[in-house]
Amino acid sequence: MPAQQPPSGPSSKAPPDHTPAGSTPINKLPAWQSFVRLAQQQTPNANSLNIIDAAGLTLDISAQRHSAALNDALDQLLAARHFNAQREQLLEGGQVNRTENRAAWHTALRAPAPTNQDIARERARVNNFVRLADSERRWRNIVHIGIGGSDWGVRLAVRAFGYTGLWRQVRFVSNIDGHAIAGGLAGLDPRDTLVVLASKSFTTAETLQNGQQAVQWLKNAGLPDPWKHVVAITARPDRAQEWGLNPEHIFHLWDWVGGRFSLWSAIGLTTALAVNSDVVAGMHSGAAAMDAHFAAAPTHANAPIQMAMAGIINRSILDYGSLNIAPYDFRLTELVPYLQQLDMESLGKSVLHDGQAVNIPTGPAVWGMPGTDAQHTFFQWLHQSSDGAPVDFIVCQHADHGWHKNHQSLLANCLAQREALLQGKSYEQALKECLDEGIPKQQATWLARHRTHPGGRPSSLIVLPRLSPFTLGALLALYEHKVFVQSVLWGINAFDQWGVEYGKRLADNISIQLQQGQAAPAPSGHDASTTHWINTFRGNGQPAN
User: Fold this and answer.
1) Catalytic residue among 179, 376, 405, 450
2) What domain range is 361 assigned to?
3) Which of 275, 304, 330 is a domain's end point?
4) Are both 331 and 361 inside the same structural domain?
5) Residues 493, 349: contact at Cβ < 8 Å?
6) What is the pLDDT of residues 23-35, one digit of tens each?
7) Domains held by the chain: number
């Protein structure tokens, strides 16, 4: 069965000649020079409110550089990059991934009523599979085997909406380390376990190797038909069938679904089995609402565009090397690695569409953890280090528990940390504090130096009314579109990942050499250190004589 292609018609048309506008380095554009001057003239000023409502979320970027003049300059910069045409290509399924001649049409996967029949059919197949499994109370255990985009989104959704407990036990296996699959299968009853293999290409080494171990585990249990306990989600159903899977247990992806955007596809099968199909549907609805906002809202009121502007200023003008994500919600623990992949795999590029060097800093390192744990881990660095980093604070206005005081404390901590980063504390303020505490003046003049905060550190605040499938879907789509806007402005391709592919090819070659054993000829084509360790590790993991 061949890999499925984007639908024919207007949505698969080739991009117009002017669409790859990233052939000119951004710092060579007159519009960029004007934008830089205005950004450098601004300072974060939360007394000038800049709050945007978008798809049920509220974005407060008052603590970023902003002004009407800066928005006008941004409009000129977007026009220089032919942004409207590129946005249209993204949303209509055009070939925005030019190095691989593919669309990146993940927005079609969450349309309320897909007009594409392939998408509608696969959505119905997933829903029917879940409905039947639920009606028969089957699969008490789910082992989800995937990595990267085939893993993070499902982990996020299951953790967010299954934090109080699940009637199905779900385990995730991603790493090729054998301890991962050993732990994933330990203690489970194979007779009531479903193994979900998620791999777009069905060649992912980690997923297939772990999958082989899981299938062997099912076979060793003496099940009459182990393959009834395995489903696959892939763009290569032919390879899954060759592996031994039944066609009715193969759910389809398409080449135009990037791995880090595949949460919206049949990859959501595990989410539906774990926390309900309505959760998946709600996330689709929220994301689709953000898609509509992104498509129609003017620049000054367009949340993804405004977040992208802040990110461009912070990275390319102010030279902040990283972006901290601080979700003040325990249920969003998995949001940070999800956004790490989305942002860093998309924006970790240094060449334009035509192969020229970008020549300015792109793609920040993305990191973080939920507050308030983060406050006791790295917020000291955010407040008083020589570098610092912009912070995206994310919080829910209303909680879904009855501990009102806890939630008030959570909100207070979020707002206080954001205010402290922005306002800082001067030496004079710190000195007065020390003296007011009764510290002798000589000691106070010394101690005050240690208690100053530079302030002026940018941040954004994203407020969800409460954590629901709709608001989580909207939040994820907000970040997707922010990343796309940044890629357009920088002139880079957000949808390939050649750096990752290079490492995979090297690993395949080294794996072969490691398996050859100590008596094999010395490996060639490597640096001295790599050669040394190939020779040292040869034979590791082989059964003892």
Assistant:
1) 376
2) 50-100+284-423+457-490
3) 275
4) yes
5) yes
6) 789 999 999 999 9
7) 4
For residue 73, how far is the Cα from the chain centroid? Answer: 29
* pTM, rounded to two decimals: 0.93
The active-site residue out of 345, 480, 481, 482 is: 345
Same domain, 463 and 328: yes
- Which of 458, 419, 416, 461 lies closest to 326, judged by CA? 461
Q: Which two tokens stand for residue 398?
A: 């209303």
Q: Which two tokens stand for residue 443?
A: 């000691």
Residue 23 is predicted with a pLDDT of 74
pLDDT in tens, 199-233: 999 999 999 999 999 999 999 999 999 999 999 99
Does residue 440 sit within a domain? yes
List the catalytic residue out of 13, 219, 504, 532: 504
* Domain at 171, CATH number: 3.40.50.10490
Amino acid sitting at position 128: N
Are residues 309 and 396 both part of a single domain? yes
In terms of domains, do 89 and 145 share one?
A: no
Check whether the bond before 372 is cis (ω within 30° of 0). yes
Residues 169, 211 within the same domain? yes
Q: Which of 467, 371, 369 is nearest to 414 (CA)?
A: 371
343 and 316 part of one domain = yes
Among left, alpha and beta (phi > 0; psi -120 to 50; other), residue 147 is beta
The question of whether 425 is a catalytic residue gets the answer no
Confidence of residue 505 (pLDDT cuts 50, 70, 90): confident
Helix (H) or strand (E) holding 392: strand 391-396
Annotated catalytic, 504?
yes
Q: Is 228 a catalytic residue?
A: no
